[in-house]
Design brief:
Layout: H1 36-46, H2 59-67, H3 70-84, H4 88-121, E1 126-131, E2 134-139, E3 148-151, E4 160-172, H5 174-177, E5 183-184, E6 201-202, E7 207-219, H6 225-236, H7 241-270, H8 275-289, H9 294-311, E8 314-316, H10 321-327, E9 330-333, E10 345-350, H11 358-371, H12 377-385, E11 394-399, E12 407-414, E13 417-424, H13 426-430, E14 433-436, E15 443-444, H14 447-462, E16 466-475, E17 490-499, H15 504-515, E18 519-523, H16 528-537, E19 545-547, H17 548-553, H18 556-563, E20 568-570, H19 574-586, E21 591-594, H20 601-606, E22 609-613, H21 618-623, E23 626-628, H22 633-674, H23 682-695, H24 706-709, H25 717-745, H26 750-767, H27 769-772, H28 785-803, H29 817-842, H30 850-857
Parallel strand pairs: 9-18, 9-21, 14-17, 18-20, 19-20, 21-22, 22-23
Antiparallel strand pairs: 1-2, 1-3, 3-7, 4-5, 4-6, 4-7, 8-23, 10-17, 11-12, 12-13, 13-16, 14-15, 16-17
The protein binds adenosine-5'-triphosphate and magnesium ion.
Length: 858
């Protein structure tokens, strides 16, 4: 559970008095809320209610961050030293080139992130607040101290505050205290030293799991308990699939760079070459090798993906989740709303004999009216079927529904007689019953009678009807509070059966996902026969159902073996949903989860791609990486295509960087040994690198082959290494032949050598993109116009710089016609050979499931 707010012994630490806002006097006075004007003034004083320090850094800060990168610093220092020895030109040039590449990067990234952020804002969390005497829906950011906020189950608590009123309110505070069970909340002063004991306080970041509460906001933003520890919490999350791959790629490149730079420095030292010059050369090599555009290319491709997805009504909250969606090979989903219409209606209320019984419906209606929660679809369906049934009843106490107990209870009185009414999943209710209603009054619930009830339950569920059980007990006196232990010695009254028609579009969507290589699994809290019936209705293959009861008995290792082949899971608790996701993930799958309830939030958080819908509860939406504006499995298929598109384009950049760019830098290092002078000056390497970078701006916009969209794709470092190992040396081989011809045949001098090679390496490096951007023949896969423009533009610029009248400024010398022709011929030969070898270098199309292997190997 991390460090959180606990001391080493695991006990919640006492907070300093000034933070214990629940002890302040302000909470004791009931409040009618603020006026709009008061709130605006308060907002100016305290600032917006945000804890995340994830706010985008300013442009200036982004530039400074890039300037402070060690390589750039070394280069600038080296240039400064050479300026001190009289070489002003290289200082100016290096400064200009560094400025240009930083400018390019900052400008591109800034624009892309702004677009993505605007989309995120469109699904901001809203809170019900009392302002100007009426309830309004406001963005959580605009909440200020003194606001009065209303909370319902599934709502995130937007700020720290004290409870003014509550009925059956329980909060999940695990995120702050590590306490796994919901904590009861009620008004009234507490003298609590620790937040775990503060029954009258609600904390930002926690959520209401049941009941209702009204709270007075005492602290907002960074002043909240969450605000003081939010950085710890962020560090607690394991990185998702995309970041894991990116990190491993970074390590690979660092190793390559270090090896090359050390090699050059050692050789130069051994050959007694000038120290400063060698040093600058090595630094320029390192800059040339660093994939400094990788963050920009990934951000832009992902941000563009986000914008395209928005057109399909999918909002991306975490950009990298687009990639994870493309890599996903298993999608788990809950049932209600995704596979069904979520228009739950009451079909019938049955007595224990299986016949219609309006008295059972009346009991259910009293329970729902006095102890249900607004927004719960089952409670809503019951009240719609019997709107008047609760008249004349008054609530005494309630014990709200939770997903572990699967029961909801109320103590209610009618004509002065008190009664406990319990409703819930039939087996959960029956477990608390000792008797059953019969014609002549309650009868003992013996084995035969239990079996008869099970038969009714099974038969109904097998027809796809979701059942709730109802039970009651007379109460000798009115209780002040209810506990779980009160749910005992009950008399079973009967069932309510509900219908929720399947969505016609669901079957088609699941088939489409199957064609994309994504298997769909259903994880439901509902009973097994209901899930099986639905699956049959949708015309999908059923197979075995794994129940929550069985899962509870399985160890993690055993569960890992079972989950892969199982498609249906029933009667699972929120915790078990999360366990299933983890097990799939450990079995090597990239897992998505789509859900909308309080009970789905842990699983959404655990998934690589957490999906929710805009109508879902706050906790589910907060946990999700992607929000569907329409609850439709079909759009997920669109999202998957988008994810794979972005991945394919990012891979093109990676391939360019690790093969042709790496090959060039490798040649440069070798040449520094073989050639009597430095093969390129530091300035020329940097120019080379800048033009190469500029050419890549078109990549995020590139078209993608159908082949790249067909199967789940995930980082495979092994495949990248293979590609590098083949294509890198190929490019070096060509460079070395170029060197040999230039030196031995044409006896080129230093300046001419550098010019010829600059042109050759630019042409090969820039044009090879058209070869390796596709597995097909280049003329069969058309590149995007933007890519053609940036690549050819960079080529033209390189030729102009090296051959134009200003060439001398950069240390270039004029090239005679036959040398130019030679360079062009060599570049063409290289491209042809690269084309011949690329399929071999790319290997078989790797699928996401190979991740398991490469992860364990790496
Ligand atoms: N308001 C309620 N009162 C009593 N019992 C309830 C209530 N809501 C749900 N239950 C019980 O808890 C079980 C699990 O809840 P629910 O079906 O919503 O879980 P779920 O995992 O979200 O299911 P689904 O896959 O259908 O979305 C229900 O099948 C029902 O037996
Ligand atoms: Mg649900």
């Amino acid at each position: 559970m991390g460090t959180r707010l606990m001391d080493p012994s695991g006990h919640a630490a006492a907070m300093p008095t000034e933070h214990r806002f629940w002890l302040r006097a302000e909470g004791s006075a009931a409040s009618a809320g603020l006026t709009g004007a008061e709130a605006r003034r308060q907002l100016l004083r305290d600032g917006p209610n945000v804890v995340e320090r994830l706010r985008r850094p300013s442009v200036l800060r982004q530039i400074l961050r890039r300037l402070a990168e060690p390589l750039v610093l070394i280069l600038i220092a080296a240039a400064a030293i050479s300026a001190a020895t009289g070489d002003m030109a290289s200082l100016v040039l290096i400064a200009l080139i560094v400025a240009a590449s930083i400018g390019l990067e900052t400008w591109q990234e800034h624009g892309a992130e702004k677009a993505a952020e605007a989309l995120r804002n469109s699904i901001a969390l809203t809170v019900r607040v009392l302002r100007d005497g009426r309830e309004q829906s406001l963005r959580a950011e605009d909440i200020v101290r003194g606001d009065v906020v209303r909370l319902a189950p599934g709502n995130l608590v937007p700020a720290d505050g004290v409870v003014l009123a509550a009925s059956g309110a329980h909060a999940d505070e695990a995120i702050l205290t590590g306490e796994p069970y919901p904590v009861a909340k009620r008004p009234g002063p507490s003298r609590a030293e620790t937040m775990a004991d503060a029954h009258d306080a609600l904390f930002a970041g926690t959520s209401l799991v049941s009941g209702e509460a009204t709270m007075l906001v005492c602290e907002t933003g960074l002043a909240t308990v969450l605000g003081t520890i939010s950085t710890d919490l962020a560090a607690d999350q394991p990185p998702p699939a995309f970041e894991r791959g990116l990190r491993r790629l970074g390590l690979l490149l660092v190793r390559l760079t270090l090896a090359l730079v050390l090699f050059v420095l050692l050789v130069q030292y051994a050959l007694h070459r000038p120290v400063l010059e060698s040093f600058m050369f090595a630094a320029a090599l390192a800059v040339g090798l660093t994939p400094e555009l990788l963050p920009m290319v990934t951000t832009i491709t992902l941000a563009r993906g986000a914008v395209r997805l928005a057109a399909r009504r999918v909002i991306v909250k975490r950009l990298a989740a687009i990639h994870d969606l493309g890599a996903m090979d298993v999608l788990c989903t809950d049932k209600t709303g995704t596979l069904t219409e979520a228009r739950i209606s009451l079909a019938v209320a049955l007595g224990p004999d299986g016949r219609d019984d309006p008295a059972v419906l009346a009991l259910a209606a009293v329970n729902s009216a006095l102890g249900g929660s607004a927004g719960n679809p089952l409670d809503t369906a019951i009240l719609a079927a019997a709107p008047e049934a609760a008249c004349g009843w008054s609530a005494l106490a309630a014990l709200p529904f939770d997903f572990e107990r699967r029961r909801a209870s109320v103590a209610a009185s009618h004509d002065g007689k008190a009664m406990l009414i319990v409703k819930g999943a039939p087996e959960a209710v029956l477990a608390a019953c000792v008797a059953v209603d019969g014609p002549g009054g309650p009868q003992p619930l013996d084995a035969a009678r239990r079996a008869a009830l099970d038969v009714i339950h099974e038969a109904r569920a097998a027809q796809g009807e979701r059942l709730l059980g109802l039970a009651w007990r007379a109460l000798p006196e009115a209780p002040a509070r209810l506990a779980v232990s009160d749910e005992s010695d009950l008399v079973f009254a009967g069932f309510c059966a509900f219908l929720d028609p399947p969505k016609p579009s669901a079957a088609e969507a699941i088939e489409r996902l199957g064609q994309l290589g994504v298997r769909v699994k259903i994880i439901s809290g509902d009973a097994a026969p209901v899930v099986a019936h639905l699956v049959a209705q949708l015309g999908l293959p059923a197979g075995q159902v794994l129940s929550g009861e069985e899962i509870a008995r399985l160890t993690d290792a055993a569960l890992r073996r079972r989950v892969v082949a199982t498609r249906l899971f029933a009667r699972v608790s929120p915790d078990q949903k999360m366990r299933i996701i983890r097990a799939l993930s450990e079995a090597g799958h990239t897992v998505g989860f789509l859900g909308d309830g309080i009970n789905d939030a842990p699983a959404i958080r655990a998934a690589d791609a957490g999906l929710s819908v805009n109508t879902a509860t706050d906790v589910a939406r907060a946990a999700a990486d992607l929000i569907l504006l329409d609850n439709d499995l079909g759009v997920i298929a669109d999202g998957i295509a988008e994810g794979r598109r972005t991945y394919a384009n990012i891979m093109k950049y990676v391939r360019m960087g690790t093969s042709s760019n790496f090959g060039n830098m490798l040649s440069m290092a070798l040449a520094s040994v073989l050639v009597p002078f430095l093969p390129m000056t530091a300035v020329q390497i940097l120019l080379n690198n800048l033009l190469y970078d500029a050419s890549q701006i078109g990549l995020p916009l590139d078209e993608v082959d159908a082949d790249d969209l067909a199967t789940p794709r995930n980082w495979s470092i092994a495949a990248i290494e293979r590609f590098t190992a083949i294509m890198g040396p190929l490019s070096s081989l060509f460079d070395l032949s170029t060197f040999a011809i230039l030196l031995l045949v044409f006896h080129a001098g230093a300046a001419q050598f550098r010019t010829a090679w600059f042109v050759e390496s630019m042409l090969t490096q820039l044009l090879v993109v058209f070869v390796i951007r596709t597995r097909a023949r280049p003329w069969r896969s058309r590149p995007a116009r933007a890519l053609v423009a940036t690549s050819l533009g960079a080529c033209a610029a390189a030729l102009a710089l090296a051959l134009g009248p200003w060439a001398g400024l950069f240390g270039f010398a004029p090239l005679p016609g036959h040398l130019l022709a030679l360079v062009a011929a060599l570049a063409a030969a290289y491209l042809l050979l690269a084309e011949a070898l690329k399929r071999h270098a790319m290997g078989r199309a790797h699928r996401a499931r190979h991740r398991a292997r490469s992860t364990h190997a790496g």
